[in-house]
Amino acid sequence: MYNFEFVKPATVDEAIAALREEDAQALGGGQTLLPTMKQRLAMPSKLVSLGGIADLVGVSSDGATLTLGGATPHAVVASNAGAYPALAALAGGIGDPAVRNRGTVGGSLANNDPAACYPSAALASGATIVTNAREIAADDYFQGLFSTALDEGEIITAVRFPIPQRANYQKFEQPASRFALVGVFVAQYADGVRVAVTGAGNDGVFRWSEAEAALSGSFTPDAVDGLSLSGDDMIGDLHGTGAYRAHLVKVMTKRAVAACN
To answer: Which superkingdom (predicted)?
Structure first.
């Protein structure tokens, strides 16, 4: 590791002011940024920690919407998001206890790793990503591998998840990292079903619109039997070919629907 300045603001305004300085980088749980810095793939001269801002931590629900503070650790979501059981279960399955106690929902969504779990939950739930400057619909937020609609110096202060009638997340884990080789989040709302896939797409998290249409008509695992995805649109690497991932998307979707029924 190299020398850098570390600041820990107590308020969002203080954090935004610090991030305006040249080569400053926001620090959530550090689960991706710190290893990247150790490898010299990123070299910010200042880290602005969001962990000390009390207003960014917490879980609340009004019965229709579950709101997570941007700096809320996965472990807190797993323990306190009972109003949205599928989301709580997703958080409880991320990494290991050390990762769950350090990693944050805002950090995960800001990083937008193509195999991360939270992006699929946000997209399938039609969540709203709240920043210090604006509100962004999940459908507009994710813009490709490690790419989001966030502007320079903009931080996630909260994420609002509409609570569905039924939902489930199924993840086929890469056993060493516990990231999703393929993960599928299915959420049923009064106006239809949303299906989001992580770990598989060449462009990162995506909605499977054909499955959404089929499941909106019949919310049963058999509804997707006639559907398929092209392996050409999927990630292919040493862990699995594109065709294998395309097959897993269908399998995980059927499992998620079956778990809802």
So the answer is: Bacteria
Per-residue confidence at 1, pLDDT binned at 50, 70, 90?
A: low
For 254, other C-beta atoms within 10 Å of its C-beta total: 20
pTM value is: 0.95
What tens digit of pLDDT does each residue of 64-84 get? 999 999 999 999 999 999 999
- Cβ contacts of residue 190 below 8 Å, gap of 6+? 165
Written as six digits, the tokens of 174 are 């890469």
Residue 129 dihedral angles phi and psi, to the nearest 5°: -90, 115
Quote the mean pLDDT of the chain. 94
**CATH class of the structural domain 56-162:** alpha beta
For residue 11, give both structure tokens: 């308020």
CATH class assigned to 166-260: alpha beta
Same fold, 5-48 and 166-260: no
| pLDDT single digits (tens) 182-230 | 999 999 999 999 999 999 999 999 999 999 999 999 999 999 999 999 9
DSSP string for residues in 119-169: HHHHHHHT-EEEESS-EEEHHHHEEETTEESPPTT--EEEEEEEPPSEEEE
Q: CB under 8 Å to 126, separation ≥6 — which residues?
A: 137, 138, 139, 162, 189, 194
